[in-house]
Design a protein that fits this description.
The protein is an all-alpha fold. Helices cover 55% and strands 0% of the residues. The chain is elongated, with a radius of gyration of 20 Å.
């Protein structure tokens, strides 16, 4: 069991779309569609008729930047994730490996600012134990689970 795949906030990095490479793959797929249909070659002509296409070169740079940004994530504990994460900074200052070690976790304003899943995960980890929770998450991920699917199911 890789406990390094659990963020300070109790999210399981293995269930993250960035960690799984889904976001990078989506961007790369869009780049392939653009290339396959030759949109990149007809953009100068389209830009004459539709002003928004004038910025196509910047769009390509953004796409390349997204591939780099969402390329490889080692997980939160190994330095991946949001570099400005308030939960990570708080835990490092304490020093805790996870919010579950803190007696103020249930009422913590920092934790409350994150998604409701954060506190729910932390509570479950405290209740069932870290090893059992990791096992549950590994099983879900093996079955195809990703946090990204939850966030996009209503789109």
């Amino acid at each position: 069991m890789d406990k390094n795949l659990i963020g300070y906030c109790g999210l399981y990095c293995g269930a993250c779309g960035i960690y799984q490479g889904r976001i990078k793959q989506a961007v790369e797929n869009l780049q392939k569609v653009i290339e396959t249909y030759g949109f990149d070659k007809i953009m100068p002509e389209l830009a004459k008729w539709e002003l928004s296409f004038q910025h196509y070169p910047e769009f390509e740079k953004v796409m390349d930047g997204l591939v780099k940004l969402f390329g490889e994530c080692p997980g939160c504990v190994a330095g991946g994730g949001d570099p400005n994460c308030a939960i990570r900074e708080c835990c490092k200052q304490k020093p805790y490996t996870m919010c579950t070690e803190c007696s103020a976790m249930e009422s913590c304003e920092i934790v409350k600012r994150y998604s409701p899943r954060t506190l729910t995960n932390l509570q479950k980890i405290k209740t069932v134990g870290i090893d059992k929770w990791i096992g549950e998450m590994q099983k879900k991920v093996a079955e195809g689970y990703c946090y990204l699917d939850e966030q996009t199911k209503f789109l």
